[in-house]
Amino acid sequence: MTTGSPSAAGPGHPVGISTPPVTLAQLAELHGGEVDRPARASIIARIAPLDAGGADDLCPFTSRRYAKEALASPALLLVDAGLAGLVPIGRRWVHPHAAWALAGILAELERGAAAPEPFAAPVVASDASVAAGVVIMAGAQIGPACVVEPNAVIYPRVVLGARVLVGACAVLGRPGFGWAMGPGGNQRRIPQLGGVRVDDDVEIGPLVTVDAGTLAPTVVGRGARLDAHVHVGHNVEVGPAAMVAAQSGFAGSVKVGAGARIGGQVGIADHVRVGAGAQIAAKSGVIGDIRESSVVAGYPATDRGRWFRGMARMLRVSGKPK
Questions:
Q1: How would DSSP label each residue in 279-290?
Q2: Domains and their CATH numbers in the chain
Q3: Do the Cβ atoms of 242 and 202 come closer than 8 Å?
């Protein structure tokens, strides 16, 4: 489950999902859990990420990593029971399976009349180049001087800026791989309604997949470069001018800083932060945050020099005669 992360939106891309008027108590009656008494009559306007939530919004808080944002938010909080003690009493909806409840709410919004409507029809700039076999669904926007190569698929709520290159057979905006565990170990898909935002001058290689965000768009920042077969999970933010080599993958809610360089076949775990200007060697496995301008390698990824020294020691030991 990777909702609850800070969001990034942009022109033409709303943050959060509007709801029909409903009180927090009514949501709890439908989906379970306990609401703090002062918040029971509160009317919800949107389901929103923590950093975008206002006083009339409901924000999911399902990861300890975002405790600081939860404390700072004026919003009502849908919070896992295990995290409830980290935020003050008074504005909480405490649920033993908060992600499960969120998935149920979003599924109802997706099915109902209040679902966030995509833009009325595909909007393609007059000077954009769209090759044979491309599918551009209702609700997508293709900006000026974009080039979309053969057989790419652009889903609703995808917004491409100017001069974006989308490689052959790339898929942008398909719902991300998000699942919530519920009572008895049951699984429920989490609808991904936030779309994708690709800023100006981005190059997306062939067979790249960029998943839609949950409550706000997945973002590929200005001038970023994604090589072939890269996978960008839901809620990820790839910073401006970042470069990602082939077959690398980002799990949900990863944030890659501006100008980062990521080698081929790198895997980055969910919610990890890669600092601006960091360099990650090919085939690294990143399971923790990477500082700005650092150079790392290996699994788990660590300082490159340290990794090489450790490997040299291992090879010397394994090469000794028995």
A1: EE-TT-EE-S-B
A2: 17-111 (3.40.1390.10), 123-306 (2.160.10.10)
A3: no
Rounded to two decimals, the pTM is 0.88
pLDDT in tens, 240-297: 999 999 999 999 999 999 999 999 999 999 999 999 999 999 999 999 999 999 999 9
Active site residue 234: yes
Retrieve residue 103's tokens: 């998935």
- Residue tagged active-site, from 95, 97, 234, 271: 234
Q: Cα(287)–Cα(154) distance, rounded to whole angstroms? A: 30
Cα(161)–Cα(219) distance, integer angstroms: 11
d(C-alpha 231, C-alpha 303), whole Å: 25
Tell me the C-alpha to C-alpha distance, in Å, between residue 79 and each of 84, 102, 194, 234, 293.
Answer: 6, 10, 21, 20, 35
